[in-house]
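To close the chapter, one final illustration. This time we ask the reader to focus less on the individual chains and more on the assembly as a whole: which components sit near each other, and how the overall shape emerges from the parts.
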Amino acid sequence: MSLFALLLLPFAYIILALLIKKASIKKRLAILFATANFLWALALIPLVQFKEMIVVQTGGWQAPYGITLVADKLSVFMLVMVAIIFLVTTIYATQAVDKERRKSGHYFFSFGILMGVNGSLIAGDVFNLYVWYEVMLMSSFILISLGGEKAQMEGSIKYLILNLISALFFVSGVGLLYGNLGSLNMADLSRIIANQPELLPQLNPALILMFVSFAIKGALVPFFFWLPASYHTPPPAVTALFAGLLTKVGIYSLIRFYTLFLYHDAPFWNQLILIMGSLSMIIGVFAASSQYDFRKILSFHIISQVGYAVIALGFYSVAGIAAAIFFLGHNMLSKTNAFLVAGWIKHHKGTLNLKTLGEVYKESTIWGVLFFISAFSLAGLPPLSGFVGKYLIIKAGIEANQLTVTLIALFVGLFTLFSMVKIWLEVFWKNKPRDKVVKAPLPPPKDHWMLTTSVVMAILIVAMGVWAQPIINFCEAAAFDLMNPDKYIEFVLGKS
Amino acid sequence: MQNIILEKIASLFLKAMIIVSFWLLLRGHDEPGGGFIAGIIASTGFILYAIVYGSVAVEKILRWNTRNWMGIGLGIIFIAIIIPIFMGYPPLTGVWMPTPSFLDGFIHIGTPILFDIGVYIAVIGIILSILITIMEVLKWNS
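The assembled structure is written out below.
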């Protein structure tokens, strides 16, 4: 029950949104349900610390046969982060998303995404993971194309097609896995593979297909094209939501798969993951430096930041996985907040082209400071959360004797700083170019909620950096559980 | 052009399809059938009706907006999911009502049938909302 509510809350909102006509009530209900989801996710933390893991067997069918919902510490950490991002962007959207879009179902489909994300974070079997991915994909596709501007259509078609390919790979992988092993419950699969390691070579096609699908979802290097092609087209509140949730779910699934199945063949997968992660870091950051659109820079940075989390996974140690989890959490906060700032600028200046912007700091000091906090947290300056995240990754890398990759991570950090400084200089500092006048949208919308949410996010970013120790402890406990898959198996299947 | 024979057939076909879909809905669970397929079959009747009489006539039969029908269907599903929770079982468990012995083999009421009815209504709502939108956009027979 405790886990099922995370699915029932968004579902209940969707039902109410279908039955209620009035937009203002729907808005209030959206905030109410997002808050409830957040509180529920918070309430899972003590549960998971007390009982290690939470398992719900829906319909009373026992584990390898029924639909299992499992939450361990990693899931709960992600659920809480997702709930924070969702609550913040929901409140932000009340002012940042125009009335047309809100009337035609902005919240409705955001709750669809929430349901998909929550579902994939607690799914205990592979096929359900796929189903929740689809829920997430369809809702996000509609959300990205809602409004029907020309640029949006172009972006959403690319988004849909590349993500459908990912879904195709995933479901073929699921089919192959089922054909080979006759089970889809993750714990059961992990147990079968652990008992019969000689099965592994014949599973490789399935695992590679699934790995590629997660890499597409998580926007790792050879498969990242959908992300920068689509993220700059929808309203900024939508981009903020996507940046916080979608790629991170791909990486979450990768962590889950790695620690349950892929670790048996660690030498091969570690190499692959490290190479893809390093390439993602480098290519993402270089592509970002060459862009001149605020949101495109940030979108390319997502690719680079995801690379960090992935190399930390590739170190395959408790410290590495803990660092990856912490970094994911940090990145969700900082990246979303950077997009929230971009949204405010888009609303007040009508453009996000760096060449036509300028002097924003003079006009609004507070938004300048907010951007400063999130951008330099992404770049990894102390005492912000990014510093702790990168420090943990680099420390884990040195301990795992992966010096090349660690050096690449440090080097990429420098370039992240470079492109953040570039945005800072171009948007906030330089004199406004007099020859390129873009007329500001009229009338300027009220923005007190936009400001409040962004300030809350900034405080969370600082807090995550300053009071990092309890969070690191939690992440380490999560990583410790992940490194001992037997515990997960025992918990889901019961002792046998 | 008005074609009386076609109109009569369409309205008879709608009634027949609804009866067939009820039969499929109720025989589901243990035998082939169930909420989804029954919903699709019922909506084929509505589709022919809409082609002959126009989408406004379908909206009149439905009485409420298709969005509301989807909401009602999903709401029934929601109720079917949470009933077992209050009785101390995991969500989605099939809970059955005790039936008197002389009805054995005829009627067996429980949450799965509620769930199927919810799916049935939601499927009709979704298909008809797609249909009506398409017919309105194309200005087809209205």
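The mean pLDDT of chain A is 88. Chain A has one domain: 4-493. With these observations in hand, you are ready for the problems at the end of the chapter.
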